[in-house]
Amino acid sequence: FSVNGSGKVLVDNAALTSASFNDTATYNETTLRRLLNFLGFDNLPGTATEVKDMTLTSDNVTQPIKVVGASIHSTPAAVSYSATLDDDGKVTATRDDYVLFGSTEGGLHLVNADNASTGGDGGKEEFVIIPREMLADPDKSAALVRGATKADIGSPNFGIDAPWLVSADYKYDFDARRVNIDTTDNKGIYAYGGLRMGGEALYGLDLADNESPSMMFSITPDTSGFSRMGQIWAKPTRAKIKTSNAANDKGTDVLIFGGGYDMCYEYEGFQLGVTDSELKECSNKSSVKGNAVYIVNAITGDLIWSASSDSSASKTVATMKNSIVAGVTTLDRDNDGFMDHIYFADLGGQVFRADFTNAGFVKPTASPTATSSPETSFTNTRVTRVLQPAYSGANTKYNHRFYERPVVSFYRNPNTSRLFALVNVISGDRSSPLSKIRDLTKADRLYGIMDTDVTKADNIFYASNFTNTNNANGQKVVNLTANSSASSNLAELPTLIGTASGEGYSPTQKTNAISTLRGTTKNGWYIPLTRFDGYG
Questions:
Q1: Beta bridge partner(s), residue 79
Q2: Could you tell me if 502 and 491 are in contact, meaning their C-beta atoms sit under 8 angstroms apart?
Q3: SS3 category, 496
């Protein structure tokens, strides 16, 4: 195995042939012995012999050693390298397929997906990648040893426990009836992901050669521009933007991801500003890790844009103070292949939309005779809050937590003939799923937010004096402090149809509810999630 940038250990036919390390702080004697144990060397010379001086043979392997942790939140991802085509150009069952997954001992594994029962290499591991963050921590690296135990009950090693995104480009050779990986112009097969509770990091891997993967980049809170980064729980979202209007600029592949998770949310009563001795060090906090959104180059990991309440971000947004754990949803407004909008939600009950202008875009003008020059760079137009927290003051601890990305779809209001985007988000508490902190009056919710701004005509939406609907300060604030009153911008659907549970409504009540949502006084709806396991 190799240690990227810090030396290497070479093992050939169960014999250690050489060892050299530059980063001795991480790759110390204890860590190296754990790595050798992970490789199968269980009968190592005593501590008086340093790893670099060892001469290992098959005598140092007395029994098969397999160390693979649990795979809990790391959803296995399919990785396909090639396939054959039939006479009609369709992909056949003859494929070179693998499975990529992380596990709690700290390794990212690529395993052959063939059917072993028919003579294939099914289950054979091609490689395992163990990030430096796993090795630098004595507790985490202990998980590489078979039978290792921990003194602290209920605090397992999490390793690589997040789902990873696999992105692949293919080229079709119809004459040869073959599909292979396309590695031209920064194309290829890449994997991106974090560690969830295993640590605070995001990685980009080049998997074009399944026998020799390489690390393209690693991002941690110590990386310049990422100081707000927390634990990355969700898959990053891949998109394309245009950073210049040069004729040869085909666009830049990017990753968009939320800043991640802060461990303060392990307390069920935690929200920013809540003062409670039971929250310990998290009582009355004014900011948390993960209160940011990042856009980075998908090949180099270089930061392109960020937003946060922190002044170091590209865009300072005062209300972005909560952790953003969920994935980010992207939209291509004009179907030109370049991302124009993103939606994201946080753990403080808020939803945001960010609008962008790509290089080469010509902003429309109000006058048909006026002209506008093409944009010369990728820029952020604005960041708008489309849903504010439901509670404040003594009830702040009840603010909703969004752990999943918003879902955005488009509809037309028959009353106005105008399009609107319906932004659906659903809340819960993934960190304390059995919590009893809420009663029926403060239940989690399914939201449907009607965003009428994002569908406005270009010459209005991109105008320099554009302000968001319903609020002069640029925030489309939804007033949830009076949920059932006429002053609320959201309609509670069960209330509109006459029953707390949403059942037994009359056709007249349903018609009235639809009429209310088609009118101009409401910007969406919500349904309290008050029924579970048959109980209300």
A1: 98
A2: no
A3: helix
* Contact predicate 361/340, CB 8 Å: no
Nearest to 132 by CA among 44, 220, 65: 220
Residue 375 DSSP label:
P
Q: How many whole angstroms separate alpha carbon 425 and alpha carbon 387?
A: 10
Structural contact between residues 470 and 476, judged by C-beta atoms closer than 8 angstroms: yes
For the CA atoms of the chain, what is the radius of gyration?
A: 27
420 within 8 A of 433, measured Cβ to Cβ: no
Among candidate residues 424, 426, 423, the one with its CA nearest the CA of residue 400: 426
Instruction: Please say whether the beta carbons of 416 and 388 come within 8 A.
Output: no
Beta strands in 125-283 (DSSP E): 125-129, 165-168, 170-173, 178-181, 189-194, 202-206, 214-219, 237-241, 252-258
Report which of 25, 1, 3, 26 is spatially closest to residue 11, judged by C-alpha positions.
1
Overall size of the chain counted in residues: 536
Which residue in this structure is represented by tokens 């922190």? Answer: 310
For residue 93, CA distances in Å to 84, 85, 97, 128, 171 come to 8, 9, 10, 26, 18
Instruction: Report the candidate in 389, 379, 321 with the shortest Cα–Cα distance to residue 355.
Output: 379
User: How many other C-beta atoms are found inside a 10 Å radius of the C-beta of residue 49?
Assistant: 12
**Rounded CA gap, 408 and 330, in Å?**
9
| 496 touches 511 (CB < 8 A) | no
- Which residues lie below 8 Å from residue 394, measured CB to CB, with a gap of 6+? none
DSSP E strands in 53-139: the ranges are 77-85, 91-102, 108-112, 125-129
Please list the rounded mean pLDDT of every run of 10 residues in the chain (536 residues).
49 56 71 85 83 77 82 94 91 91 94 75 86 88 86 84 96 92 93 96 95 93 97 98 89 97 97 96 95 98 98 95 98 94 96 94 72 87 90 92 97 90 95 89 90 88 77 39 55 73 69 83 84 64
Nearest to 400 by CA among 449, 337, 341: 449
Paired sense of beta strands 379-387 and 351-357, if any = antiparallel
CA distance 250 to 418: 33
* Distance of alpha carbon 446 from alpha carbon 400, whole angstroms: 10
Which residue shows structure tokens 């609008």?
355
The whole-angstrom separation of Cα 41 and Cα 34 is 9
* Two tokens, residue 291: 């209160």
